[in-house]
Design a protein that fits this description.
Blueprint lengths: L1 H19 L13 H9 L8 E4 L5 E5 L11 E7 L5 E14 L3 E8 L14 E7 L7 E7 L7 E8 L12 H28 L10 H19 L9 H4 L8 H10 L3
Parallel strand pairs: 6-8
Antiparallel strand pairs: 1-2, 2-3, 3-4, 4-5, 5-6, 7-8
Bound molecules: 2-acetamido-2-deoxy-beta-D-glucopyranose (2 copies).
Length: 265
Amino acid sequence: MLLSLRTIAPLFVLLTGVQAAFITDNCKLISDSESEKNALHLLEPLTNQTFTTEGKEQDYSYIFQVCGDAGGLKDAGLVQKEKKGEKLVRIGNYTKTRAIRGSDWVLLFYEGGENYDTHCSKEPRRAMIMISCSTSTKNDFTVVLEDNQKQQGCYYLFELDSSAVCPLIPSKLSAGSIFLIIVLCCLAVYITGGFLYQRLLVGAKGVEQFPNYAFWSEFGNLTADGCDFVCRSRGNREEPPTYRGVGTDPLGEEPEERDDHLLPM
Ligand SMILES: *[C@@H]1O[C@H](CO)[C@@H](O)[C@H](O)[C@H]1NC(C)=O
Ligand SMILES: *[C@@H]1O[C@H](CO)[C@@H](O)[C@H](O)[C@H]1NC(C)=O
């Protein structure tokens, strides 16, 4: 008992430890709101992965990580890489993050990048990454546009398809239908099991191969009787004798039939 507790305890600590430490907590939110924190935690499955894409002009590529150093550049979540000189330009720091969440998307901002040289009043670069729900297992990362032909509010916009931000679809099966499925399964097991038992071990033939044939046929009769009693307003047996003559059956035939029936009893 003690031994098993000792072996389980570290595992438990490990599990709770892993659960508590979100890699996305490496990102620092500009405004520390609960909803932005939740949006960020949705991206947890995307951490420890590097996403790369070609720029529009083909002479740059972009490297993106969720709350991790992209291209090995400290605190940079998104960097631009020059194809020729291998020079890295910081587009945004994950230490300056915003995360906005919709029904099936998260918009991630990395701000505080390297200042523009000439464009955009030499303000810091910033990246916006639109992460949308996709059921495809492939995470498709693309650059959408580099909006830098204005005085301020310039940005680099990217898109990433991922199942991480898809809304959780509740199980379509209600408790009732699950119960019904279980009952049907039990019934199937009962019938096939009973059938095999009757056939192979008891050696029954024909309809008698059905499990508990005698019981079920009796049960069927009883049910029919019960239904007859409950549902029929005028039972044949209780029919007053005066009616018999008016019925469809010829008068002479019926008493004979009744007598035949009584004989064996
Ligand atoms: C993610 O990367 C960090 C740093 O390299 C590492 O400590 C951590 O174990 C990794 N996590 C997973 C789930 O791979
Ligand atoms: C971005 O991160 C780098 C590296 O830590 C740092 O030098 C720079 O000041 C940061 N930028 C902003 C705006 O915080």
